[in-house]
Request: fold
Amino acid sequence: MEKKRLSALLPIGVFLVLYLGFGILFEYVFHTEEGFYGVQAIVVFLVALLVAVLQDREHSFNEKISIMAKGMADDNIVTMCLVFLTAGAFSGAIGAAGGADSTVNLFLTFLPGKVAVGGLFLIACFISLSMGSSCATIAALASFAVGISEATGFSIALCLGAVVSGAMFGDNLSMISDTTIAAVRTQGCEMKDKFRMNFWIVLPAAVITFVLLILITPGGDALQDIGGYNILKVLPYLVVLVGAILGVNVFAILIAGAVLALAVGIGTGAFLWNQSFQVLFNGVSAMYDITVISMVVAFIGALVKEAGGIAALIDLIHSKIKTRRGAQLGIGVLVMGVDIATANNTIAIVMSGPIAKEISEEFGIDPKRSASILDIFASAMQGILPYGAQLLYAVGGAAAAGYAISSIEIIPYLFYPFLMAVSALVFIFLIGDRKKTA
Reply:
């Protein structure tokens, strides 16, 4: 008989308590410079792993190592880690080549002042969809958002809200986003299938957000002092975006994009050819944390599952969920709760993914549907967390330009994350899921 022990979930509880507890202390009690991000997730995960190892008294240490190795050897985990590293190589190459700045300037050059804020949202959507990183998008656009605020007279909080909203669009949808990768791999579906379903779910939210931004920002002045651009530097983004939409293998897309970005960077003099290895290394090394975290989470998940924690949790959820719609809502609530605790939507998906997979299989929910729900609710919550990286990047961009603004001030203008969650709820309750056949 399968073991079912809620106590086996203790390592996850330890992680949440330590991570959230120390984060609140650093951010709101001691007011440290690093704040919430002074708590390194990987260290807390290692503590949780130690708890999982010590809690299991039924297996020898060598047997526990074997259990963890099997968890890490899962095809989905291995693929996820490899894609993270490849995506890092592309990001490093395109960043060093100056592709982000050129893409931004290209769009801003043709942006009418009267639709400046709405256009800023669209720019952020395009860049985040191409880059797969909300933080990188915000870092690239925050200063421009401040410039648009100065040029048009609209509030900085509104302009930054448009950037963060657009950044979460790509964070949720991009085929090279770590959240997409994690959601797809944990649920066992194809990226292109998840993209198509996810796109139609959030499209109404994106359209309404754009319309709202236009309606509340009439009469902006024309933009001035826009920097130059090089169309060649935009090409790697276009290659990745078009390839992703066409459903080309993600590794092929990323490798092609990285090679093209290196060629463009060298050809335009952005860096020397003998700096290519360092450029790629810088991007890959930026993915080390999430890659190692994915491995450790796999270890913890394997031990928790072996001890009966997952089975017990599924039983508990079953006692509360009676319908397939309730199961989908439960997946959304689960991943949002973990994201609140971790302030990282990728980690939230990695932790919640196996449980969501169990729920979706029990209730006959299509994998691409569960993957979309996981990613949407995680990204929606992440986008509005005042201590989340996205809003902290936005606040930092304003500070660099000489403006002091609180992340709380930006939240009322985060139309897209809120509407994204609403769209997902409408999808769950009004758009039925055909039951899978054997």
Observations:
- The mean pLDDT is 86.
- The two ends are 24 Å apart (CA to CA).
